Amino acid sequence: MRNPNVKYYQIPSKSQPPNSKTKEEKIYNIRERVFCFAQRVLEIAEMLPQNRVCDVLRTQIVKSGTSIGANMEEADGAVTKRDFINKITIARKEAKETKYWLRLI
Q1: Higher pLDDT residue, 42 or 23?
Q2: Domain assignment present for 25
């Protein structure tokens, strides 16, 4: 149970894409987006052939690609602004790392 006297920093539960113009467009919050991204990373990892090079790539994309969402969730429960910023920064770094590994595939 959360302490009512502590200010918690949270990721907004709903965010609209910047160029959203119609109500028919899907609105995803950041948690849902990184979760879907992690699922896609896992699907890609499963499609890679079984060899030494792909084993390394698979390990790296799974670690960094799923870490993004984990760090976003940790940021959501941050008690201090500093901890919140730290977790968001780590998530961003993991996203950049994942982008690199995916480019190699």
Answers
A1: 42
A2: no
